[in-house]
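Hello,

I think I submitted the flavin mononucleotide job twice by accident. Can you confirm which output corresponds to this input? Input:
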Amino acid sequence: MKSNSVIELIQSHRSIRKFTSDSISSEQLEQIIESGRWAPTSHHVQAYSVIVVQDEEKKKKLAALAGNQSYVETCPVFFVICADFYRLKQTSTIHQQAFEIGEEEQVLVGAVDAALVAQNMLLAARSFNLGGVMIGGIRNDQEAVTELLDLPPYTFPVMGLCIGYPDQNPEQKPRLPKEAVVHSEQYDTKSLVEAIEEYDEVMKQYYYDRTKGKRSDTWSEQMASFLSTPKRPQVGEFLKKQGFLK
Ligand SMILES: Cc1cc2nc3c(=O)[nH]c(=O)nc-3n(C[C@H](O)[C@H](O)[C@H](O)COP(=O)(O)O)c2cc1C
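Support: Only one job matched these inputs. Its output is below.
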């Protein structure tokens, strides 16, 4: 089937982590934000907020908090996309209703809403030949990010998003084969090991080529190592502090 510009944009995705010093225009910024606003949200709750960070000092602090990810500082605009039930607290107060956000469900709702907004924003940015990368590293210390950005209760930072003009041209990172991620009518576990092995070979070659032979680890090795230790055990306590997860 014939492709089109939207399909081409989506399927040519690569994260960009090196930016030129060019700034992005206020019209572009406006359109990126507007595109985020048009994301669908669960039950129309619109449980998200976007913090636009352009201040150099603030970006520097956020870069450090995200685990010294320098591109958070060097990108011209950094967005922090938050789950946000603070304004929903106001709607409950106005209408004198109980405000029930103690279930894990509300955390999922806020995180999903934020993620959809972020992806819309990234795609909108890419339509202007800008590039970017999402930053889960801002969850390393959500408490400090919350303090730095003055986030109110019933909110939490979900992810960051660096946007700017690309100063690198990385190859696309191969994805898992379709058979490993798409199932027809019911989940099929049978071909999984084979698909992982096939993908390991692809990724091994990808890393080998990209690092001129210095690196040749596989995806399954990486994932096994990634999941061998807890990642951010403090997240649950932080969410409770913000009014979630009673
Ligand atoms: C929610 C989310 C959080 C991410 N956090 C980071 C991050 O903190 N630092 C980083 O360099 N990349 C981050 N990434 C980018 C992923 O590493 C990247 O999407 C993945 O390796 C696939 O590469 P690609 O986007 O170039 O195809 C994140 C991506 C997502 C979706």
